[in-house]
Design brief:
Distance between the termini: 27 Å
Strand order of the largest sheet: 4-3-2-5-7-9-8
Structural class: alpha/beta
Shape: globular
Strand content: 5-15%
Radius of gyration: 22 Å
Number of helices: 14
CATH superfamily of the largest domain: Vaccinia Virus protein VP39
Low-confidence stretches: 1-11, 288-301
Order of helices and strands: EHEHEHEHEEHHHHHHHEHHEHE
Length: 347
């Protein structure tokens, strides 16, 4: 996906493009899945890297999908598009009879197209209906959420997903406002947040940024989707396949980091219950050995390392710390400044 993190869109340049291509190594050919196709920037670079590379592009935004299909039509049968959520990667690949996937990419940012079109309701740069759905054919809008949730739930949502310290004041003001009239537009909500927080002087970021982020995450169930997606993406890949994920804020990156560690065999249970998990595993291993079964290299094939948290050694990490855009890229493309890339390889 070509991503944007601020209130105003910049260019449609894909983020961390060179780094993604370098990690996925498409020059050797193979089948790649761009699970958040957006306008097709990453997919185009992969297809150009080798005449033997094939890309399956998934996106739940029909508008973005149509533009990407037109852009990538020159690659003919080497590119296939699917309208779906990236959590449906297993179903999409089964329908297309795609096997031995070489690489998977997910760019978790909001697309420039979505921010450019005010009617989508993602940005407070223009007054528009408060929608925020990435797939406008289904689900609850941000306006419906804002006008439905009880004050406490609304405050918890804004605090948890937006990391907004003024969450309770904002939720209280929203409830008071909607008693007078429904909150239906981006300007209504943005103005309300400004009045509540009343920041002085120059704003580095708009005061409503965190509230809008929180609502977008909730409307699209983004964090839950990332957690569900990672195990399925790894399952879909052939041995040696690589999974690359670009996150744009700490909540997403934390989930990616923990999921990658768990899939590499690192238990993330609370320390007080790890002993229970380890004892259970030893009992299971002793049971196997006493029955005379051959253990072989079971860990590399994905045996459960912890029965409590589900840790299992299916990948090894190629990025111990996230890869960040260079200073040159940030200067050229300010929307890339928050990007965090993590990559793992299937054993």
């Amino acid at each position: 996906m070509d991503t944007e993190v601020g209130g105003e869109s910049q260019s449609h340049e894909p983020v961390l493009l060179a780094e993604v291509v370098d990690f996925l190594k498409p020059e050797g050919g193979g089948t790649f899945v761009d699970c958040t196709l957006g306008l097709g920037g990453h997919a185009e670079a992969i297809l150009k890297a080798s005449p033997e590379a094939r890309v399956i592009g998934i996106d739940r935004d029909r508008d973005a999908l149509a533009i990407a299909e037109q852009r990538l039509a020159i690659f003919d049968k080497r590119f296939q598009a699917a309208h779906a959520n990236f959590t449906e990667i297993g179903r999409v690949l089964a329908q297309l009879a795609a096997e031995n996937v070489t690489g998977v990419l997910a760019d978790l940012g909001v697309s420039s197209l979505q921010l450019d079109r005010g009617e989508r309701g993602f940005s407070f740069a223009a007054d528009a209906p408060l929608d925020m759905r990435m797939d406008q054919s289904r689900g609850e809008t941000a306006a419906e959420l804002v006008n439905r949730l009880p004050e406490r739930e609304l405050a918890d949502l804004i605090f948890e997903y937006g990391e907004e310290r003024g969450a309770r004041r904002i939720a209280r003001a929203i409830v008071r406002e909607r008693e007078r009239a429904e909150i239906a537009t981006t300007k209504q909500l943005a103005d309300l947040v400004v009045r509540v927080l009343h920041p002085r002087g120059h704003w580095r970021i708009h005061p409503a940024t965190r509230t809008f982020q929180a609502l977008r995450i909730a409307v699209n169930q983004e964090l839950r989707a990332v957690e569900a997606f990672i195990p399925d993406a790894i399952t879909a890949m052939a041995q040696g396949g690589r999974l690359a994920i670009i996150a744009f804020h700490s909540l997403e990156d934390r989930i990616v980091k923990r999921s990658f560690l768990r899939e590499s065999g690192r238990c993330d249970c609370p320390i007080e219950v790890r002993g229970i998990a380890q004892a259970g595993r030893r009992l299971a291993e002793n049971g196997l050995e006493s029955s005379g079964e051959q253990r072989g290299d079971s860990r590399a094939s994905g045996d459960v390392a912890c029965p409590l948290c589900g840790a299992r050694r299916r990948v090894h990490l190629l990025t111990r710390k996230p890869v960040r855009p260079s200073a040159a890229e940030c200067a050229r493309n300010p929307r890339s400044r928050s990007a965090l890339l993590r990559v793992c390889e299937k054993l």
